[in-house]
Amino acid sequence: MVCEDAETMQWLTAVGYYRLSGYWYPFREANPADRQRPLDTFSTGTSFAEVARLYEFDRHLKSKVHSGVERIEVAMRSQLGHLLGEIDPMAHENPANFRPGFDHSGWLKTARGRIARSRGRDAFVDHHFTKYGGHLPIWVLTDILDFADLSKLFAGMRSADQQELSTWFAITPPPPDPRASTASQRRQRRKWRQHPALESWLLQLSVVRNICAHHSRLWNRQLPPATTAALRAVPGFEGLPKDQSERIFGTLCMIGVLLRTTSPGSTWTHQVKELVTTSFDQLDNRTTAEMGFPPGWETLPLWT
After folding, report:
1. What is the dihedral of CA 87, 89, 95, 101, to 10 degrees?
2. How far apart are CA 267 and CA 71, in angstroms?
3. CA 10, 11, 15 angle in degrees (round to 5)?
4. β-bridge partners, 2
5. What is the dihedral of CA 255, 260, 261, 266, to 10 degrees?
6. What is the pLDDT of residue 78?
7. Do 11 and 20 touch, CB atoms closer than 8 A?
């Protein structure tokens, strides 16, 4: 790898060797004996400048992703508070409002920890302790929970409530495939009711959000798997892999689709497309396939 000394030292000092090593690792030559352990030599023509360009692309990508997830997260807080609040202001305290297998006591313990963490920091939390003895209704509680807590809460909700929330976000089951057998269609509908696609995608979004918040490497990370089988026929998800998505392309598709509901008229997908095509595509030794992008992704409806 060709290094420009002054520039290299600046990067190593400001960013750090370990963090940058995650970006030059993919540039190492493949090891014929073990592709999981590349050789300690770099592909011909690799320069530190190109590693820096990859780092900068990833930094801008995280900024875009964080912006998109923020709007989805705010909407999720609002909708969860509204839906459960219609059942009861303290619906989250009653395990009967959730699935039998949900670890309600564990989740509630975490939620109470979030409340304790907020005391003395958030005036509205202190107000509820002063006036109502600290009993926060669900629409207040959702504002102090972490996104991962919201994801777990959704996973524990009853199927009908999950379906209602999924419908609000326009994540609904695709129309029946006339080529599929009746039994296959029934299985697909049952699976959708039992485990809506939004459940695994919220988990992945919460992980991606934390990656962005902690400024970790995102572009080629392997993420928690999110189901794709029931979504591939839904507009916006045409490019997803067959069984599950573990790369950032799937996350970008999910954000783009959810923003249609949370932020109508958003140009987010166009901004991401421009970033990829004008920044990442200029890297000589990297391909969008490493991020899970399928061939011809630019022509798919979500990105045009």
Report:
1. 70
2. 13
3. 125
4. 47
5. 90
6. 97
7. yes
> What is the spatial distance between Cα 269 and Cα 259, in angstroms, rounded to a whole number?
9
Residues 151, 205: contact at Cβ < 8 Å? yes
Radius of gyration for the chain, computed over Cα atoms and rounded to the nearest angstrom: 22
DSSP bridge partners of 98? 157
Name the residue ranges covered by the structural domains of the chain: 59-268
CB proximity list for 189: less than 8 A, separation 6 or greater: 173
CA angle 277, 31, 3 (to 5 degrees): 55
pLDDT of residue 185: 65
Counting residues of the chain whose pLDDT is more than 90, the rounded percentage is: 63
For 79, the token pair is 């909708």
H or E element in which residue 19 lies:
helix 17-24
pTM for the model: 0.88
Question: How many residues can be counted in the chain?
Answer: 304
- Work out whether the CA dihedral 41, 43, 45, 48 comes out positive or negative: negative
> Mean pLDDT, the chain, as a whole number?
89
**Dist. CA 268–CA 255, nearest whole Å:** 9
Secondary structure letter of residue 29 according to DSSP? P
Residue type, 231: L
Give 226's Cβ-side CA count (13 Å radius).
30
Distance between CA atoms of 16 and 217, rounded to whole angstroms? 13
Could you give the CA distance from residue 141 to residue 157 in angstroms, rounded to a whole number?
A: 16
- HSE, side-chain direction, 13 A CA sphere, residue 187: 6
Both structure tokens of 23: 């970006």
Strands 244-245 and 226-227 turn out to be antiparallel
Nearest CA to 77 out of 170, 149, 150, 163 is that of 150
| Among 293, 191, 195, residue whose Cα is nearest residue 252 | 293
Comparing C-alpha atoms, which of 295, 173, 296, 187 is closest to residue 235?
173
